[in-house]
Write a structure and sequence with these properties.
By secondary structure, the protein is mainly alpha-helical. It has 4 helices and 2 strands; from the N terminus they run ααααββ.
Length: 175
């Protein structure tokens, strides 16, 4: 059963990532439609991408990966994955326009959302493996570690579920 624990943990993280990412993408997609009426589509896509990236990075770091605040480095690394994703989604919609000039809103959104889903899988892998990597619980000088409940300290020999320091959204790691 212990071999299944990492699989379940990663599956749960991916589920949170996909749920949050899908919700943020749908909101960005809904904002993209009216923005594209007032400005070029690629500019509207860039604007919604930047706004949704900031929100997504905060939520993924805290909720999906239990990493705490991402900081500037986390935001910049996440932004790099988004920049590549923006090129992919813009390229996909551009290819649709070249292959089917005058394609309507439904085909545009279908291509955009499909490309975004593929980009999302790639982003999950990069963010999980390179940006918001898992941290091992840090032992304190006395051998104690921080626990989920009320930040009490218990000796390691006590059978409690241990979490990495900062694994709870919004908590900063002690210095």
């Amino acid at each position: 059963m212990n071999g299944l624990r990492p699989i379940r943990r990663h599956a749960a993280a991916f589920g949170r990532f996909a749920g949050l990412g899908s919700g943020i993408t749908l909101v960005a997609s809904a904002a993209l439609v009216p923005l594209a009426q007032w400005m070029p589509w690629m500019a509207a896509n860039a604007l919604t991408t930047v706004a949704s990236t900031v929100v997504a990075t905060e939520l993924h770091a805290r909720v999906s990966f239990g990493h705490g605040r991402p900081g500037l480095a986390g935001h910049l690394k996440s932004a790099a994955t988004i920049a590549l994703g923006w090129l992919v989604t813009s390229g996909a919609v551009g290819a649709l326009a070249a292959l089917r000039p005058g394609a309507g809103l439904v085909p545009q959104q279908t291509v955009y959302l499909s490309a975004t889903a593929l980009v999302g899988i790639g982003r999950y892998l990069v963010l999980r493996l390179a940006v918001f990597t898992e941290r091992a619980p840090r032992a304190r000088a006395s051998g104690d570690v921080r626990l989920r409940e009320g930040h009490r300290h218990h000796h390691r020999s006590e059978p409690r579920e241990l979490l990495p320091t900062g694994a709870i959204a919004g908590l900063e790691s002690p210095v």
